[in-house]
Structure formats: structure tokens, C-alpha cells
Design brief:
Helix content is 51%, strand content 15%. The chain is built from twelve helices and eight strands. An eight-stranded mixed sheet has the order 3-2-1-4-5-6-7-8, sandwiched between helices. α8 crosses α9.
């Protein structure tokens, strides 16, 4: 970037805190963090050398870009607080279900507005995120993609697909964790010590995630599964139990829930 970008982050939780931790190491960003919890602000001020405040409006006044990283039900309250100070400031929200239209409705006309849907893997720099913007916000998309690129992979996506993306990758780490826990429990049932089962499952998932970047899921499945073998037997049993259908149903339910959050 040609000059230091002043970025305010409202909410120092999982996503906001991950951004602070990663961006503070870059000289491209001048950060200010706003949060209601004093211990959080103290941790970021002392640990990362960023400016902190309890005032969301102050964070907006001192920013070129304000990232609202609070729970969906708190977003509109935050927007009402910062609206008087938002002139010339772009606003990006990471909240599920809160539409660009809803955000625009709480801010001065013409405010650049962006939506970002990240996931919790951002905390280890391996997250994924999608970005959409209103017309005024289009000019800020490269900056927002650069910021979230510090915590993982980022891509643009039409806002009409954000609810599905929320269900797929926003909630995705929880699905993987559920499957991992089921695998561990299954290993224990077959006599493997829990610590050994956990280590085997963690390494298997980590290694498979690398393979998935190089080849398709179908290719990996076919490489592992031999006709009449152990993997084929497992697939038959899982399909009888409705494994794939349960995944489809889960994503559909999460997508619908994301849509209702906007109501």
C-alpha cells in the first residue's frame, strides 16, 4: 500500500482479535481497537502496541476503514453509535445475516459498505473469507481483501450467496470438529487409547486438507478406497446411516437460519 491505512476494529473477539494480532505486525496499518471489556483492550495495547478505546464513535473518527466485528444482534446498535462520525469512512461488517441494505439504512447516504464472512480459522492465519460491497464500497474491496488476506484466503462473492457461504465455511470449522470428535470416539470404541486416537485423527485431517489443495475430493477418495476393502465397507455403512444426506440437511438448515437473522 502507498500509505498507512487507519483501520478501526469494533469488537476484539475471535475475528477482531485475530485481525489485530496479524495486522499489528504490518507497517501498512495504523490500528485502533474498540471494545467494552477493559481486559481485552489492555491485552491488545500491551501485547500488540495498538491504540484502544471504549468508544466506538472514537474508533470511527480515527479511521479510514471501520471493521464492525460484533455479534449480529449488536451490529445495528454499533452503527447507530458511529453514524455521526462516519463521513468519509468505509464500513465493513463481519456479522452473519446482516445485509448491506440493513447497514446502509443506519449510515449516511453514500457510505461505502462491505460485508465480509470469515471463519474462526482466521485465529491461526488459515481462515477463509468472502467479500461483497455496495457500489460506493467497490473501491475499498482491494483494501479489505488485503486485510483479511493476513488471516487466510479471501475471495469476492455476490451477496445473494452469503447465507450459503455462512453455512458452508463460516460454520464449517464446527462441522469438521464434529466429524473429528466422532472419529476419535469411534477409535476409542475399537480399543485405541484416546490420546493416540486424537493424534491420529488430527494428523489425518491436517494432511487431508493439504491434499485437497492439490486434487479433488473424489480423487482422494478413489486413491484410498479399494474395491471390497476397509474404506469401501465404511462408506457403505456411513451411507446407510445417511451421512451425506445429513450434511446436505445441515447446510440447508444453517443457510435458512442465516437468512432469518436478517429479519
Amino acid at each position: 500500500m502507498a500509505s498507512t491505512k487507519k483501520v478501526g476494529i469494533v469488537g476484539a473477539g475471535k475475528i477482531g482479535g485475530s485481525l489485530v494480532a496479524r495486522l499489528s505486525a504490518s507497517r501498512d496499518f495504523d490500528l485502533m481497537v474498540s471494545d467494552v471489556h477493559e481486559e481485552q483492550l489492555k491485552r491488545f495495547a500491551e501485547g500488540y502496541g495498538v491504540r484502544t478505546t471504549h468508544s466506538n464513535r472514537k474508533a470511527a473518527e480515527d479511521s479510514d476503514l471501520l471493521i464492525v466485528a460484533v455479534k449480529p444482534w449488536d451490529v445495528l446498535t454499533v452503527l447507530d453509535e458511529v453514524a455521526p462520525a462516519i463521513e468519509g469512512v468505509a464500513v465493513a461488517s463481519v456479522a452473519a445475516g446482516v445485509t448491506i441494505k440493513a447497514i446502509e439504512g443506519r449510515l449516511p447516504a453514500g457510505t461505502p459498505v462491505l460485508r465480509v464472512m470469515p471463519n474462526v480459522a482466521a485465529s491461526v492465519g488459515l481462515g477463509s473469507a468472502v467479500v461483497a460491497a455496495n457500489e460506493a464500497g467497490q473501491a475499498h474491496v482491494p483494501t479489505v481483501m488485503e486485510i483479511f488476506g493476513h488471516v487466510g484466503d479471501v475471495m469476492e462473492l455476490p451477496e445473494r450467496l452469503f447465507d450459503a457461504a455462512t453455512a458452508l465455511h463460516g460454520s464449517g470449522p464446527a462441522y469438521v470438529a464434529l466429524f473429528a470428535d466422532a472419529l476419535i470416539q469411534a477409535g476409542v470404541r475399537e480399543g485405541i487409547p484416546r490420546d493416540v486416537a486424537r493424534r491420529l485423527v488430527n494428523q489425518t485431517i491436517g494432511g487431508t486438507s493439504v491434499l485437497l489443495k492439490e486434487r479433488s475430493a473424489h480423487q482422494i477418495r478413489d486413491e484410498v478406497m479399494t474395491p471390497g476393502g476397509t474404506t469401501a465397507a465404511a462408506f457403505v455403512a456411513m451411507e446407510k446411516a445417511g451421512f451425506v444426506a445429513a450434511v446436505y440437511d445441515g447446510i440447508e438448515a444453517a443457510t435458512e437460519r442465516a437468512r432469518r437473522l436478517a429479519d
